Amino acid sequence: METVEAGHDDVIGWFEHVSENACKVQSETLRRILELNSGVEYLRKWLGTVDVEKMDDYTLETLFTSLVPIVSHADLDPYIQRIADGETSPLLTQEPITVLSLSSGTTEGRQKYVPFTRHSAQTTLQIFRLSAAYRSRFYPIREGGRILEFIYAGKEFKTLGGLTVGTATTHYYASEEFKTKQETTKSFTCSPQEVISGGDFGQCTYCHLLLGLHYSSQVEFVASAFSYTIVQAFSFFEEIWREICADIKEGNLSSRITLPKMRKAVLTLIRPNPSLASHIEEVCTELESNLGWLGLIPKLWPNAKFISSIMTGSMLPYLNKLRHYAGGLPLVSADYGSTESWIGVNVDPNLPPEDVSFAVIPTFSYFEFIPLYRRQNQSDICSDGDFVEEKPVPLSQVKLGQEYELVLTTFTGLYRYRLGDVVEVTGFHKGTPKLSFIYRRKLILTINIDKNTEKDLQRVVDKASQLLSQTTRAEVVDFTSHADVIARPGHYVIYWEIRGEAEDKALEECCREMDTAFVDYGYVVSRRMNSIGPLELRVVERGTFGKVAERCVGKCGGLNQFKTPRCTTNSVMLNILDDSTIKRFRSSAYN
Ligand code: AMP
């Protein structure tokens, strides 16, 4: 039988090989994608009836990149909608699409669907195996051990045409590949499926923690998709540890767990364990009274070797707190990917999250890179506000130190699709570039897996201000927002300055309207599970935004060029806003 170590060597050997030949592998990947999907409606539109198989790699790549346009989700949306409505002719892929994933972001204020195929789940398994293999070089773990994994599957639903829709992680947790991953990596999640797919953040987290403690001596590492969740889970633990202790002592389950399937599944796993309960009580009392919860993880999970989750990008604000709970345990930053495609693997798991970059996996998709230059000169080639862009280049031509926006051509029917992420090439792993994640373009509000742009915010505020003017004699004169990542759970705060009189009831309604008007699926699912708290509307006194402008202009130039930032983390601005807040409302949506 294959051992885990041999499996690790195989998968690393495979990756070293494809990295070494990354440029050639990219050409082959493009060829495979085009051969598999030759004749689909979208490609016929741009490539006509060319015979892909007869072309050499160079001609094929040149033809593809000169004839097929670079697009955003909005351009492919009509095709995806037709698939969602049940059309079965080959539109984007020859393989019939039966499942759609909800990617982050929106298109024209609607949720963004992208096709999901078996290939998507297989690449997830492959990258998980690969990163487990690299991790094991630095932090070997015991075979057959457990992972305290804070993972949450959302709900799935059907489109008009009968296709299943859910997040990519939801599909993955329900797939064969998820089971295979546990078996091949010989590490098993503490919680059963009924907990993972429970759909209520508080109840799932409670059970993850309870089972994590029940199996504490076997836990080899702690993980989640994004580190926000780990931080939320442990700050929740600070409040409810006594309840968990009582459950462990008696082999019982708190009445806060009301979901019958979850209750049943957890109760069949736990047994009364008074000695474990008194040990936890002793440790937690010390942590609470003397240590401010510093080092909570190694104190309660003494065999844990590391903590793994995405810690880069919008997760950086949570690093301090995570380090506090980790108390010296290594933080291993997880891989880089999106619903559209996995992108890169962390081949240096020993590096701190701030220094991590991701080696592009050249078999997963065909990658192109739009060079980006931070704006200086207005008259340049093509621009998109924040950056000046140049023509996209293939992987073989990327340069060290250059920033790029990623463009993907995937096995799932996305062709030259702008992902919106800005990355920097910080090195090479053999022949494949290592990318450090800079940020998602245009993203302003994010706490967890949610991603909202200025346009999304504007749309949301427009909707609510219409409601305000219809129901009162008041209007919104200016606004801004802030993602409060310190609160537990984190939530969006929107500041309004209004002219005229508005009753509290009307403002409450506006607050609720804004909360429901953010339709990015990451937001919706986090709100439903309460891993993001109710949106808060703060009404500031008249003249507040004038004060903000004066303060900013003092620092950054003429008043006629001043634009209110639509989202801020600036403490001076937040202080002015908070000092001027006269009313606060919390949304009652998703209650
Ligand atoms: P989604 O499509 O909802 O799965 O979100 C994918 C997006 O999350 C990517 O396009 C990135 O903006 C962000 N993301 C994913 N992985 C990482 C990572 N390792 N570091 C930073 N940001 C990431």
The termini sit apart by: 51 Å
Mean pLDDT: 92
* Largest sheet descriptor: 10 strands, antiparallel
- Which range does the strand content fall in? 15-25%
Given the structure, what is the number of helices?
A: 20
Question: Could you characterize what this model shows?
Answer:
By secondary structure, this protein is of the alpha+beta class. The strands form five sheets. Strands 10, 11, 12, 13, 14, 15, 16, 17, 18 and 19 form a ten-stranded antiparallel beta sheet that branches. Helix 10 crosses helix 11 (227-250), helix 11 runs parallel beside helix 15 and helix 16 packs antiparallel against helix 17. Mean pLDDT is 92; it is low at 377-384. The chain binds adenosine monophosphate (AMP). Adenosine monophosphate binds at residues 103-104, 168, 310, 312-313, 335-339, 419, 421, 437, 440, 449, 522.
In short:
This protein is of the alpha+beta class and 591 residues long. Helix 1 crosses helix 6 (118-138), helix 2 packs across helix 4 (57-67) and helix 11 packs parallel to helix 15 (319-326).
What keyword list fits this structure?
591 residues, alpha+beta, ten-stranded antiparallel beta sheet, five-stranded parallel beta sheet, 20 helices, 25 strands, 23% strand, binds adenosine monophosphate
Please specify the SSE layout and strand pairing.
Elements: H1 4-20, H2 22-36, H3 41-47, H4 57-67, H5 73-84, E1 99-107, E2 110-116, H6 118-138, E3 145-150, E4 157-158, E5 164-166, H7 168-173, H8 176-185, E6 187-189, H9 193-196, H10 201-214, E7 219-226, H11 227-250, H12 260-269, H13 274-291, H14 296-300, E8 306-310, H15 319-326, E9 331-333, E10 336-337, E11 342-345, E12 358-360, E13 366-374, E14 382-383, E15 387-389, E16 393-394, E17 403-409, E18 417-429, E19 432-440, E20 443-445, E21 452-453, H16 454-471, E22 475-484, E23 491-499, H17 504-517, H18 521-528, E24 536-540, H19 544-556, H20 571-579, E25 581-586
Parallel strand pairs: 1-5, 3-6, 3-7, 7-8, 8-9, 23-24
Antiparallel strand pairs: 1-2, 4-5, 10-11, 11-12, 12-19, 13-15, 13-16, 13-17, 14-15, 17-18, 18-19, 20-21, 22-23, 24-25
Helix pairs in contact: 1-6, 2-4, 6-8, 10-11, 11-13, 11-15, 16-17, 19-20
The structure holds adenosine monophosphate (AMP).
Adenosine monophosphate binds at residues 103-104, 168, 310, 312-313, 335-339, 419, 421, 437, 440, 449, 522.
